[in-house]
Amino acid sequence: MKKPAVPKANIVTIIVLCMLIAVITVQSFLSSCSVQANESTGKVQTYATPDTATADEAVLTASTEPTSETSEPTTQKSTEKPTKPEKDENTEPVTKKKNSADNETTQPSTQKETVQWATVMTMETKCSYEEQWEKGYLVAIDYPDKTYQTYHIDLTDEDRDVLEHLCTGEFEVGGFIGEALIAQCVKDAMCFDGYKTVEDVRVKCGYAASLDNTPTQEVKNAVSYIFDQDHAAVQHRIMYMYNPSLVSSAFHESQNYILTYEGQRFFDRWGY
């Protein structure tokens, strides 16, 4: 029995339909792959114009990223700390003529009536020399201790005799001012460290000068100026002294340097 014949027109129609279906299927598949690729890379399609996007980025950059030329100097000014000037431990004394205008940079003169100054670093700002001289201090320094004060000590005859010989032996060439500085060292030791006699200070503080001498009236006046009249040679506590031309002392140099007078170096200790 023979199969019925299929018209050719129907075959062509079927082929065309299959091709259309195939094209639609392929387009759908490609579109799906494109969406998945965009989602996996995190790219988002935007519609802002190129000019607008560039302008916004420029504004954002200018407001969040300051240039190094303007930021660096500002940082240095805000963090840089002022430093103190170094001590001038070799400062020479300067003279002050009686009843005349002061000249703080004048070189030492040969006149007998003089007042001296030296350099020390204990305060932030310099103090007036005139203020120190008016208060009776013999040596004016740039940075005195305005809180410095002692109390009155009545010297016994024995204490006075030992002290006058001690000042003569330690600093006879220093004259009235130098001997007053030695006397102040002894008094400060008695006031701040509690020594009861001058002999205790002489022995326990290591004063090694000979007492085999004859004190002058100048020495006696210096001792009286410090103890009897309750003055001080310098407006600062002084606890130690030595002459570097005679001996080397790392201990003294580790202390709080106050001044040098006629070769003798005077120190306070750190802390009270």
Please tell me about this protein's structure.
The protein has 272 residues and is mostly helical. It has a domain at 116-268. It is built from nine helices and five strands; from the N terminus they run αααβαβααααβαββ. It has helices at residues 8-41, 50-64, 68-79, 129-134, 157-171, 175-193, 198-204, 217-228, 250-253, and strands at residues 116-118, 139-141, 240-242, 256-261, 264-268. The protein has a three-stranded antiparallel β-sheet, with helices on one face. The chain has a two-stranded parallel sheet with strand order 1-2. α4 (129-134) links the parallel β1 (116-118) and β2. The protein starts with 7 loop residues before the first helix and ends with a strand. Residues 41-122 have low confidence and may be disordered.
Gist of the model:
This protein is mainly alpha-helical. The protein has helices at residues 8-41, 50-64, 68-79, 129-134, 157-171, 175-193, 198-204, 217-228, 250-253, and strands at 116-118, 139-141, 240-242, 256-261, 264-268. It has a domain at 116-268.
Name the descriptors.
3-stranded antiparallel sheet; 272 residues; rod-shaped; mainly alpha
Global outline? rod-shaped
Give me the strand/helix succession: HHHEHEHHHHEHEE
**Secondary structure tally: strands:** 5
Task: Count helical runs.
Answer: 9
Radius of gyration: 47 Å
Overall pLDDT metric: 74
Strand content: 5-15%
Termini distance?
135 Å
**Residues in helices, as a percent range:** 40-55%
Sheet with the most strands: spatial strand order: 3-5-4
SSE-based structural type: mainly alpha
Give the biggest beta sheet: 3 strands, antiparallel
Low-confidence stretches: 41-122
